[in-house]
Design a protein that fits this description.
Elements (H helix, E strand, L loop, with lengths): L2 H16 L3 H20 L5 H18 L9 H23 L2 H10 L11 H13 L2 H12 L4 H8 L3 H21 L6
Helix pairs in contact: 1-2, 2-3, 3-4, 4-8, 6-9, 7-9, 8-9
């Protein structure tokens, strides 16, 4: 399904959720579970943490869905809830988990729901490289290339100017190229 049709479907589902249709919430979860999980996984340390954050996201969505004034902005709204929840979780983990344990978890938890889209070897190299890109650049790359958000939408979501988003994308792409060349990843 195209990005535009997903946005329209999301708008309709949000409107249905606001009117109390319980089935629409299940459909919204089905439509958004993988993209949100993938995005969250780029922020938190482990796959298990990502699933926990996603559960919190859905709880927030249920409690706040009636507050959406413009359903056309529902996609960005979902990402903003996911972002805020993921960053809160990440900050909490950074405070409570010893550094060596965090690094060990990150090294051994490479599972990702999007890995089936490319070969296992390619996906591993790409995710390894993406994991080495600084978080602001990694977030911009994920939202732009993998989640297909516009520069303006990313700007609104991350609360930085469009120029900063462009800069993060530029530097992130360069860093990915450099890292993938080091791994001898084809003609990058």
């Amino acid at each position: 399904m195209s990005t535009q049709s997903n946005r329209i479907r999301t708008q309709l589902l949000v409107l249905r959720c606001q009117s109390g249709d319980e089935n629409s919430f299940r459909e919204l979860i089905q439509l958004w579970e993988k993209p949100l999980l993938y995005y969250i996984r780029r922020i938190v340390l482990t796959q298990e943490d990502a699933w926990d954050v996603l559960q919190e996201v859905w709880i927030n969505v249920v409690s706040k869905v009636r507050q959406i004034r413009n359903p056309a902005c529902a996609s960005v709204w979902l990402y903003r809830i996911a972002r805020n929840t993921a960053f809160n979780s990440w900050r909490q983990k950074m405070k409570t988990e010893p550094l060596d344990e965090k690094m060990e978890n990150q090294l051994h938890d490479d599972s990702d729901p999007m890995d089936d889209l490319v070969s296992a070897e390619d996906a591993e190299a790409i995710h390894r490289a993406l994991g080495q890109v600084p978080l602001p650049q990694r977030e911009a790359l994920t939202l732009f290339f993998l989640e297909d958000l516009s520069l303006q939408e990313i700007s609104e979501l991350t609360e930085v100017p469009v120029g900063t988003v462009k800069s993060r994308l530029h530097h992130g792409r360069n860093k990915m190229r450099e890292l993938l060349r080091e791994e001898d990843f084809g003609n990058v």
